[in-house]
Amino acid sequence: MNTTRFIRNFLTFKEALQTQNFNNKELNTICLQAAIQGEQIALQESQNKFAKEQAKARMELEFLSMQMQLQSQKAQTLNALIQCQSMLKSLKDNAAINRANAYVSLLQVAGSVGANNFANVVETINQIGIEYTHSSVNNNGIQYNGTAEENELNTILNKLSNELDKLNALGDKESIQLFSNELEVLVNEPTEIWGFSTLNNATEGFYNANNELLASGNSFLFSSNIAGQHTITFKASIGQANVSKSITISVIQDKLRQKQ
């Protein structure tokens, strides 16, 4: 309990009611109850604010956790892609080494090999690894006219490349988030809007439908005296990187006040 506020409210109520037909005991009782209720309301507001901050922090942590998982998945996919490429290169390198060794062996016995046999052996040696050097490119990626083993690796390589492209696109799309306490408010009723992004040290701000800056930073207390749909866009930028996300707040008239 805020003692200073409690005493101030008690004295304020007493000053406001002292002109009424109450004796001193009744007046003190009424003012005491009113001051206590005021503290209860203040406590409830404080709890609500704390709950909102908790929800905000939880959503931000969940968002960042998803981003970390995404980055981890991208790293794993990239690592698998590199390993697959290394295996493909190893197949080609081994074929080249085997071909070179065969040439060396042939040269060592060239004197005892007939011309026809020599030509046949050379032709055979030339076929070593040839399946790894003939390839074509189409809409499905790189296709090698190679062994089943190498073709399987190539298929995996193309799948990993496509998966990495999808993860990169997903990371760009989900690099910013925007939330509001309420999506529908009364005229002149405030609601807090906040956003966050994965861009480090970015310039952030909120803009209206006309691209006019409403507030800088990552939180904004929105209110409007105009009923209707209001689109608020949260933008974050640093260098050449720019991300944004929009939210629509419905502002409606207070029908009870209109009847009065």
Keywords:
five-stranded mixed sheet, three-stranded antiparallel sheet, rod-shaped, Immunoglobulin-like, 260 residues
Detailed description of the structure:
The chain has helices spanning 3-17, 24-108, 115-126, 148-173, 255-259, and strands at 135-138, 141-144, 176-180, 184-186, 191-197, 203-207, 213-216, 219-222, 228-238, 241-252. The protein is α+β, with helices and mostly antiparallel strands and 260 residues long. The chain has a five-stranded mixed β-sheet, with no helix packed on it. It has a three-stranded antiparallel β-sheet with strand order 3-5-8, with helices on one face.
In brief, what are we looking at here?
By secondary structure, this protein is an alpha+beta fold.
Strand order of the largest sheet: 4-10-9-6-7
What is the average per-residue confidence, as pLDDT, rounded to a whole number? Answer: 77
What's the N-to-C terminus distance? 37 Å
What series of H and E elements makes up the topology?
HHHEEHEEEEEEEEH
Task: Give the topology, please.
Blueprint: H1 3-17, H2 24-108, H3 115-126, E1 135-138, E2 141-144, H4 148-173, E3 176-180, E4 184-186, E5 191-197, E6 203-207, E7 213-216, E8 219-222, E9 228-238, E10 241-252, H5 255-259
Parallel strand pairs: 4-10
Antiparallel strand pairs: 1-2, 3-5, 5-8, 6-7, 6-9, 9-10
Helix pairs in contact: 1-2, 2-3, 2-4
